[in-house]
Amino acid sequence: MGTYITDYTKYCFLCGKPSSEQHHLVYSGALRKLADDDGLFVPCCRECHNEIHNNGTAGKLSKIVGQLAFELNENAHKGDIQNAREKFRARYGRSYL
Fold first, then answer.
1. Three-class SS of residue 63?
2. Cβ atoms of 48 and 64 closer than 8 Å
């Protein structure tokens, strides 16, 4: 499993309460394994984690943040945002942006 996209792993990414679990920013089936491999997860409290999965808008925003984190990491290594976006699309099967 990779590392969180934030250094603040003891606190919920959304509300700042102590975190009790992790949320995969890109999720559903096989995408969760890819998110594990790419480190696309954040610390969450139980309430916020439930809200993300039960609220369509929050779920979409989660996937957008996951894609942006992936692209930022790729761009830092290769310096080409379009290439990073295409790599995400190829790896995850779509773009959320």
1. helix
2. no
Residue 67 and residue 96 in contact, taking contact as beta carbons nearer than 8 Å: yes
Structure-block tokens of residue 92 = 């995850």
**Residues facing residue 68 across a β-bridge:** none
Report phi then psi at 8, rounded to 5. Answer: -90, 70
Q: What is the reported pTM?
A: 0.87
Which tokens belong to 23?
A: 């949320």
Contact 5, 40 (CB under 8 A): yes
The domain limits of the chain are: 21-92
Residues in CB range of 16: below 8 A, 6 or more apart: none
Return the sign of the alpha-carbon dihedral for residues 22, 27, 32, 36.
negative
Find out whether 35 and 26 touch, Cβ atoms under 8 Å.
Answer: yes
Condensed to tens digits (0 to 9), the pLDDT of residues 39-84 reads 999 999 999 999 999 999 999 999 999 999 999 988 777 778 888 9
